[in-house]
Structures are given as structure tokens and as C-alpha cells.
User: What shape does this take?
Amino acid sequence: MKKIIYSGDEENLYGIGFLGSSEIAIWEIDVSTGHNKVRKTFKYEGELSTGELIINGNSAVALDAPGENLVIVSIDQSVVHVINIKQLIPEGIGKPQLLAETIDAIFALQFSNQFVLVKSGLPHDNLEVIKTFEGSTVITNGLELPDKKSAFSVVQQIAVNKIAVHIILHQDGENKISTEFIGLAPQKGVVQRAYLNDYIRNDKSHGFRVLLVTMDSSLTLLQQGEVVWDREDGLACILEASTAELPLEKEGVSVAKVEHSLVEWLKDHWLKLQATLMLANPEEITAVQALRLKSGDKTKMSRDHNGFRKLLIVVTKAGKVYALHTGDGRIVWSLLIPAFQTMVGRVKVLKLLAWQVPHKHALDENPVFLVVAESTGDDEIVGMLSWVDASSGAELRSVKLTYRIEQLIPLPFTDSS
Assistant: This one.
């Protein structure tokens, strides 16, 4: 059973799903007892793909096992329609996937080279391709709006640092598509999931917000073609952590340059004086705390004499490396490892190891870390190595192994020079 349908009957619910590998069935479920019985079955002369089944008005849509045909069941007429996908979408490459998200009479098919929105009409085998999207694409949830309107969004990756957000507004059988192009930081990777929400504008019209989940597990809220806020939620899934020394401060040169005008200096000291005399309001107390956090040697990007000031290097489950300053916890740099983005299948981070720790050559060399991961594809599991500069956050080089990694044994080695 794949879906539960509420038809307005107070005593019964209805479920729809697969019966074996060649039948689609409707169950009648007693609300008071939970007992169910098969009410109607629809036979398909072949084998069905039981991965996904969507309800589209008074019809149910499924794929056959080879992925060559759409199987559409007209529930009210008890008729099974078979539509050849190649005839409907001749440019589609690979085995299509039927996506769970649907709204009104529109559903989506994902191919290896494109994403296609399909609209079904009456009769149910009357299908029309609404829009085709190239490249990496995700679809949001659907929204029911007043005046018998509905909406959903498609987020398309245009480039590593640019996306297109398509809002599809459906009313009275017509579809209106509006598109906004938005720039994103390239360190986020491709968009993996998206969620649509609506709000009422000052002119009483409907506006839309889109929440993105990107490859690095960060969240980004979009509204009116702009980034409202951005949050690094990937830091909640830290797998490995280590420390790196900050650069030495050369004589006469401060890596962290902080310059304040006389007016700013007086303003800061006036706030501190108010806080000392207990005359500051809550906003001023917060400002003073921020000043104290940023003041002094805590936030310098150079070593201190006691060795407390360091970089905290962490790697997350998504394969993103962060350098955090131990003075105030800020993100100094972040890197979604490029080599891992090109891997086929699921990437699993195994270890973060210190590869190069300069001592005598600290002025000429930077600390280097090795990130070890493995990629699980359809046919094989292979290892991946990436070397990252701890000071600049750049990937120095990477190596794809031809075998999987079973065990890691760090062997310390000291360079005599």
C-alpha cells in the first residue's frame, strides 16, 4: 500500500498500492477497527515497478519494471492505459524515475539528462509535456492556494554558483511559469532538496519563499530572487576534528588588521562605560559582549605565545572541511572538496589526518591535512584521498584509488631538515 486517500466518507478510508508485481489494488479501510479488504484490482500485462505510485486526480500513475511505459489507471472508469515513454519524451536518456511530488494533474519524470513535467488530461491517457529542464533539478512540495489555485517550484542548477527558481502557478487548467536567477556560493554544491512556502504581500497577492538544502547540508532561504539568510547546518554532523597552528606573525606586520576611527573608538568605550555603571540596555549589553569577543588578541589570525590560539579543522558528513578560529568560533574558510563532488554514488568520509605539520619552516610552509573517503557506486567501492591546505583552504591534490579502504594506520614521520 503506497497512498492513503480520504474521500469524505466518515467510516472508511481508501488505500492504493501494488498487489504483487503486476496489479494495482484499492483497499477499503474501516476507520473504527483498522480492518481492510481489497475492493478493486487493476491487472497489467507485464511487471510493474513498485518503487513509486502517484495519485493524479481520479487516476493512478506507475512505471513498468523496464521503465519503458507509463501505466495509468483510470480509477472511476476501471481502465488501464499504457503510454510509451520514448514516444512521449524522445530526448529522455536512461531509465526514468517517477517522482513522488505531484500537484493537480501534473507529475514529474527524472531522466539522467533532463527533468520533465507532464500534464494529464481527459481522457487520462492524454498526456502533454509542459516543460523540460536540463541538468541537476529538484522539485518542491505543492501548495494549495485560495481561489482554486495551486503552486509548486522547480529549482534548476545553471552553474556551480547559479540556480534558476521556476515557480509554476496552476489555475483553471492553465500554468503560469515565472523564473528567477539567483547566485549561490560555489562551496555549497548542487541543490539536493527544496521546500516551497507562501506569504501574503502588502498588495494582498501571494509571494513565495523557497528553502534549499544543498550538498554541504547547509540551509538557504530565498525570497523575491534574493538570499534572505544562510545557515551552515552541516556543522551539526562533524565526523572528525583536529587542530592546526596559525601562521607566525612577522615583525611589523599583523595578519589581522583592525582599524577604528576616533568616533568608533569613543563609541566603543562609551558602551563599555555604560555597561560598567549598569546603565546599558539589553541591546547595548549585547553590543558590548560582541566588542569584548572581538577585542584584544583573541581574534588575531596569528599565533600567540602560549599556544592557545589555533585553527580547529573539522570535516562533516557531507564531505565539507571547515577551519574554525578558536578565539571566537568563526568560520575562517570552508571547502566542499571538489574531488568528492565528482564521485559517482554516495561518498562516506572515513578520516581526517594531519599530513604536514611545519615547525622549523613555519614561515615558508603551511599545515596540510589529508581527508580520506570512499565512494559507494552501483558496482564497486573505491577510496578517495584529498590533501587540503589548512591556511588557505585550497585542495592541493587528490587521488582516486582503484580499491576500497579497509583500515588506516597513521605512521608518524619527522623530516630531519
About this structure: The chain has a mean pLDDT of 83. The CA atoms of residues 144 and 184 lie 29 Å apart. DSSP finds four helices and 29 strands in the chain.
